[in-house]
Write a structure and sequence with these properties.
Protein name: Peptide ABC transporter substrate-binding protein
Number of strands: 27
Strand order of the largest sheet: 1-14-23-13-3-12-11-10
Pfam families: SBP_bac_5
Keywords: Signal, Transport
GO molecular function: peptide transmembrane transporter activity
Number of domains: 3
Helix content: 25-40%
Family: Belongs to the bacterial solute-binding protein 5 family.
Radius of gyration: 23 Å
CATH topology of the largest domain: Dipeptide-binding Protein, domain 3
Distance between the termini: 20 Å
CATH architecture of the largest domain: Roll
CATH class of the largest domain: Alpha Beta
Largest sheet: 8 strands, mixed
Length: about 575
């Protein structure tokens, strides 16, 4: 066994974006960037051409294999193999040219130039019209995904979405490889917030926008720009990917990648027997896998945090407005009591086996905008404090059954939802949270939901979801607005606060922060203080990412944001 922990980056630019990568079972990360001061971790050597790598997954993909529509991290992990952004990021997560390069003088008007000869996997050349098509699709009122937030600041996008214009005025196509994009105003993050995944016009132009996400072009026969193309899919079980010989960075080393979905209980055996070459590990399997002679375990700093959310309201998808119309968890002292009731360190030790630490706010500690925990309202394990806050909020045991009633004397039962996969620890860890609440006198019960239904229920404010377990990961833009703005669909607690919105807007205002990163970080620290005081979520933990490689794997490297480009990967015989 060889284990190589990766040191933290000294200077990183990270940003919240949807476990995304939206949210997922237990891992989420995108981007392929390297550590500034250390060599990336993993086995490196002269690349061998040919061969097949078997890539294991403990959670089946939802099956939405296009960046413009996917919702969970498992699908995102597949997409890192099959598709690609126009922009890449350096070792500090600063944007740098990829397929597209850019120029701007004022952070409002950008001119982008595409590499010529970049091919879609169906043999059609990529042009800026495919990017225009993607932006128009995301701005269409019938678009059923969650990424309008990444295009809504383009001049004319809101009018297009409202049906008041036939085109987006801020998109000016100069030629097949050049486009000028004008935003509604100059902002610090216009570039890194901009949606940078094209959508093949040739593949999708005859499909109504409302039907795109369910189309064969997304579910069965996806076409991307990445190093591997989909050859076959057995839903919920496996995928066969073959190298795309005309990939724009060069022909991939591997001939193929087999994606295999495993039951959590079989992962250790599959690695030991050489049935799979590579997998992101659940912490429960870490120690056993470390003991295998033919496998290397690699850890690197995670960019995700895990939380318990409270449903405080509902989201109107037509108006993009949140209404805080749910009363059950409206009392902040109730939420604070429920936070103090949880022994986070004990829970992390029990279910994440030393691979995690408590987190006190809505930003992972590796993030450059993360406030110091001393500045935040920390909800340390304190059952007595929890009981005091319950009493202060009017929650008392009026019938001597050991559990509190609500301030009106009615029965009070917390319904706690958690996603279900083949991981056997998920229901157990959900029951442990419920037990913490019961120990301070709050009656609670667990509701487990299949993972591919779970986030759809959370996003659509299904009445069955009251409190819920989830996670978010980081991306390339340090602006948390997409997850916390009062008009954002990924604001899952449906938290609405004018002060929060103002702070998030100020952190992007060039007149307020200019190019001073510290000024921006200070505003984000104030925002984190506000969130920690209001407790729309109980922030639980941040984890190390854990991956396992068989001794066949070569040239796969990691840093704080994930693996290098798959076209560089190789295997030995």
């Amino acid at each position: 066994m060889k284990k190589k922990p990766l040191g933290l980056l000294l200077a990183i630019m990270l940003a919240l974006s949807a476990f995304l990568a939206a949210c997922s079972g237990d891992s989420a990360s995108e981007n392929d960037n390297n550590n500034e001061n250390e060599a990336p971790e993993g086995e490196e050597g002269e690349a061998t051409s040919g061969g097949t790598l078997t890539y294991g997954f403990e959670t089946a993909p939802e099956g939405i294999f296009n960046p413009n529509f996917y919702g969970i991290a498992t699908d995102a992990e597949i997409l890192t193999l099959t598709d690609e952004s126009l922009i890449t990021y350096d070792e500090n997560l600063q944007p740098e040219p990829g397929i597209a390069s850019w120029e701007t003088e004022d952070n409002k008007v950008f001119t982008f130039t595409f590499e010529q000869g970049v091919m879609w996997q169906d043999g059609v050349e990529l042009t800026v019209e495919d990017w225009v098509f993607a932006i128009e699709t995301l701005s269409d009122p019938d678009y059923d995904g969650s990424r309008y937030t990444n295009v809504e600041t383009i001049e004319g996008a809101p009018a297009y979405r409202a049906g008041e214009a036939d085109s987006i005025s801020g998109l000016n196509v100069i030629d097949e490889y050049t486009i000028e994009i004008t935003f509604d105003e100059a902002r610090v993050n216009n570039l890194v917030n901009l949606w940078s995944y094209p959508l093949s016009r040739a593949q999708f132009e005859d499909i109504p926008v409302a039907e795109m996400s369910a189309s064969p072009q997304v579910r069965q026969n996806p076409i991307g720009l990445g190093p591997f193309k989909v050859e076959s899919i057995v839903p919920g079980e496996s995928m066969q990917l073959v190298k795309f010989e005309d990939y724009w960075r060069g022909e991939p080393n591997l001939d193929s990648i087999v994606v295999q979905v495993l039951d959590s209980s079989t992962v250790v055996g599959a690695l030991g027997q050489g049935d799979i070459d590579m997998i992101s590990l659940a912490p429960v399997n870490g120690e056993e896998v470390e003991a295998l002679d033919n496998v290397e375990v690699i850890t690197y700093p995670g960019l995700s945090y895990y939380y318990i959310g409270f449903k405080l309201g509902t989201f109107n998808a037509e108006t993009n407005e949140i209404t805080e119309d749910k009363e059950k968890y409206a009392d902040v002292n109730l939420r604070r009591a429920m936070a103090h009731a949880i022994n986070r360190q004990e829970w992390i030790d029990a279910f994440f086996f030393g691979y995690g630490t408590p987190v006190d706010g809505p930003v992972p500690s590796n993030h450059w905008i993360a406030a110091d925990s001393s500045e935040l309202t920390a909800y340390e394990y304190d059952p007595e404090k929890a009981r005091e806050l319950l009493a202060e909020a009017g929650y008392e045991d009026t019938n001597d059954d050991g559990f509190v009633e609500d301030p009106n004397g009615e029965e009070f039962v917390v319904k706690f939802s958690h996603y279900q996969t083949t991981n056997p620890t998920f229901e157990t860890r959900a029951q442990a949270i419920v037990q913490y609440w019961q120990e301070v006198g709050i009656q609670a019960e667990v509701e487990m939901t299949e993972v591919n239904l779970y986030y759809d229920m959370v996003e659509k404010d299904d009445p069955a979801i009251e409190t819920f377990f989830g996670g978010w990961s980081t991306g390339s833009d340090p602006d948390p607005t997409g997850l916390w703005g009062s008009d954002k669909i990924w604001n899952y607690p449906r938290y609405k606060n004018e002060e929060s919105d103002k702070l998030l807007a100020d952190a992007l205002n060039l007149e307020i922060v200019g190019d001073d990163e510290q000024a921006r970080a200070d505003i984000y620290a104030e925002w984190q203080k506000l969130i920690s005081e209001d407790v729309p979520m109980i922030f639980i933990s941040e984890l190390e990412e854990i991956v396992a490689h068989s001794d066949r794997v070569q040239n796969v490297t990691y840093d704080v944001s994930g693996p290098n480009s798959p076209h560089e990967w190789s295997v030995t015989d």
